[in-house]
Amino acid sequence: MGKGGRMGEQELLLEAPLHGDILGEILTRVPLIQLLPASRVSKSWRQSVASTLLHPSRVKPWLIVHVQSRRNPLVTITRAYDPGSNIWIEITGVGSPLSSSLRSSHSNFLYTLSPSKFTFSFDALHDKWYETVGPRVWRSDPIVSMIGSNVIVAGGVCDFEDDPLAVEIYDINSGHWEMCESMPDMFKESSSSTWLSVAVADAKMFLMEKCSGRICSFDPKTKIWKQPTTVRPDPSIFLFLMGSLSRDRLILTGFIGEPESVQGLKIYEVNCDPLDCKEIGEMPSWMLKKLQNDDSQLCLINITASENIVYVYNPADLREIVYCDFANGESKWGSVTGSGIDGSNWMNRSTFTCSKMSITDLQKSFGSGDRKFTVK
Q: Model's pTM, two decimal places?
């Protein structure tokens, strides 16, 4: 919306003022992204907007899809799904140094990696990017995570390097890389993000082998790996994916059956120490069918999670994205169409992040006018 249009809207609202419960009721029906103009009308409106957002159902983690051209990494389309308003939003004017392929790690961590440069961003809408020299060890498919001011880069080492399990930590405050204890030997044949799922909880990085359920954790403070173990709450699970919710809740998503015949999908909450599992949700069978068809590859399915929501998606088939909302201690399943995002287009690659969004985050991103949004 242009500046003139916004001023005209505000003048109209001021001529016919709304107050109290009536204003509050109206604002509860307005999508979060469109509350930005309302918050600028007056002090009383700003207070009403703030009051409206106190309800948990209004502020839920957004799913953000970054569609990048393989031919030209600078060409990127960003679309966000707001589950609280059930709308897709296209974001333009995203300023990011995308000189190479965009990748994502747990929740909202985005990064690019080349032999000479490492760039990353971790705020809600990725307004701020950090840039530094690349790790000492060249990696093509590493596991990356962020804990506090430390960015951990592990495994994914190219064949010509000496240690395939090498681990390095980048300290944002000092701007320096540090070599650490290598990954456990059990990951020697699977030390890349292709074969490992990563999550952060309890100020530790957790790695799980997707095909076996073998898991271990790394503490960036002590720089020590904990002895690996196996977590398999159901012997029929053949694909393991990890994530984390609010308050350091570690979760495990398990696909049950066989790759050719998936029988179910269950979500477990995992206690960090000891690693005990408790089932907290099971996907309805009719929703499971939305994730698999004759053209889609089950091995590509992944998850992204934040706060109380887990999104389950297939980047090669974005016609339907499934999610589970654990608010109020219940598991509520839903799905959303991909709003025109074509994951089957081999000329593009899709990267996913998930982040809780506040009105402050939106003000930072769209307040300057450099970024624009369009509700799809």
A: 0.88
